[in-house]
Automatic annotation (TrEMBL):
<protein>
    <submittedName>
        <fullName>NAD(P)-dependent dehydrogenase, short-chain alcohol dehydrogenase family</fullName>
    </submittedName>
</protein>
<dbReference type="InterPro" id="IPR002347">
    <property type="entry name" value="SDR_fam"/>
</dbReference>
<comment type="similarity">
    <text>Belongs to the short-chain dehydrogenases/reductases (SDR) family.</text>
</comment>
<dbReference type="InterPro" id="IPR036291">
    <property type="entry name" value="NAD(P)-bd_dom_sf"/>
</dbReference>
<dbReference type="InterPro" id="IPR020904">
    <property type="entry name" value="Sc_DH/Rdtase_CS"/>
</dbReference>
<keyword id="KW-0560">Oxidoreductase</keyword>
<dbReference type="Pfam" id="PF00106">
    <property type="entry name" value="adh_short"/>
</dbReference>
<dbReference type="GO" id="GO:0005975">
    <property type="term" value="P:carbohydrate metabolic process"/>
</dbReference>
<dbReference type="GO" id="GO:0016616">
    <property type="term" value="F:oxidoreductase activity, acting on the CH-OH group of donors, NAD or NADP as acceptor"/>
</dbReference>
């Protein structure tokens, strides 16, 4: 991958949750290109191993550990293995997350079910289990991972945590109330952590990606033939740059925030990378 610029991460241990996914596998590769030991934690063991293999084939250092960020035991086992093999992590990227159809309504605006021709899922049909799944994956997963890794990271002089928020955190997107609420919680938690750990020189910031076509959102953005849905067209019409982002376009902000030379005084920020979506009122 052609990096926008390079920072020196040699001998730095970098843990990336969700590192088998679309965005975070790109982050993992970029961090490895800067010399970091990248440890990919993901439930998708095979995909994670594939990412680690690609990194190694390209001369980088990487390891994949099957980990469920919602299971403390699994996180603790991963931490033990990382500390034994590499030492305390310097950088934690809390990337695992995403929405799920179980937490999604059919329509943007409430319409009474008895007046509909087709079967719809309204706000009143959303089940606790679906809401908990999405909220826990996005908020609790980041909370638990941070709790388990940050304790050791506070012993370092210049550790960094990067959370992944979203456009939802500024203004909720229609149809996905749990995902929106969870990402708002991530932005809030980023600020909380930044303050809480500031005396330990552990900086915490978040990326707020705009719209990037990935696994987690393709059901909402592409129809069965792979054409843009009405929602995708609407997003593009509200994005002043008039397109979806390319995942590589997140790397500049990631490296800037990770680098203590470039962002040593940047703490508690949620940075939009969104083609202007969050700045545009629509008029
Ligand atoms: P993705 O689905 O490609 O990747 C998510 C990864 O998380 C997957 O590899 C999955 O296996 C892993 N994962 C899921 N549950 C897990 C668990 N319990 N424990 C460990 N790993 C688990 O999604 P993505 O689009 O690359 O998203 C990455 C992050 O960026 C997410 O937090 C997402 O909410 C956020 N985000 C994405 C977009 C976008 O447009 N794609 C926009 C804003 C924010």
């Amino acid at each position: 991958m052609k990096l926008p610029f390079k920072i020196d991460l040699s001998e730095r241990n970098c843990v990336v949750t969700g590192g088998a996914g679309v965005l975070c596998s790109t982050f993992s590769k970029a961090l490895a290109q800067c010399g970091a030991n990248v440890i990919i934690l993901d439930v998708a063991a095979e995909k994670a191993a594939e990412v680690a293999k690609t990194i190694k084939e390209n001369g980088g250092k990487a390891k994949a550990i099957k980990t469920d960020i919602l299971d403390e035991k699994s996180l603790l086992n991963a931490k033990k293995e990382i500390i034994r093999e590499y030492g305390i992590p310097d950088i934690l990227i809390n990337g695992a997350g995403g929405n799920h159809p179980k937490g999604t309504t059919t329509n943007e605006f409430f319409e009474r079910k008895d007046l509909q021709k087709e079967e719809v899922k309204t706000f009143f049909d959303l089940e606790r289990e679906g809401i908990e799944f999405v909220f826990n994956l996005n908020f609790l997963g980041t909370f638990l991972t941070t709790q388990i890794f940050a304790e050791d990271m506070t012993k370092k002089d210049d550790a960094v945590i990067i959370n992944i928020s979203s456009m939802n955190s500024f203004t909720p997107l229609t149809k996905i109330p749990a995902y929106s609420a969870a990402k708002a919680a991530i932005s809030n938690f980023t600020e909380w952590l930044a303050v809480h750990f500031s005396r330990e020189n552990l900086r915490v910031n978040a990326l707020a990606p705009g719209f990037f076509l990935t696994e987690q959102n393709k059901e909402l953005l592409l129809d069965e033939e792979g054409n843009y849905t009405e929602r995708a067209e609407k997003i593009i019409s509200q994005t002043p740059l008039e397109r979806f982002g390319e995942k590589e376009e997140l790397i500049g902000t990631l490296l800037w925030l990770v680098g203590n030379n470039s962002a040593g005084f940047v703490n508690g920020n949620v940075v939009p990378i969104d083609g202007g979506f969050s700045a545009y009122s629509g008029v």
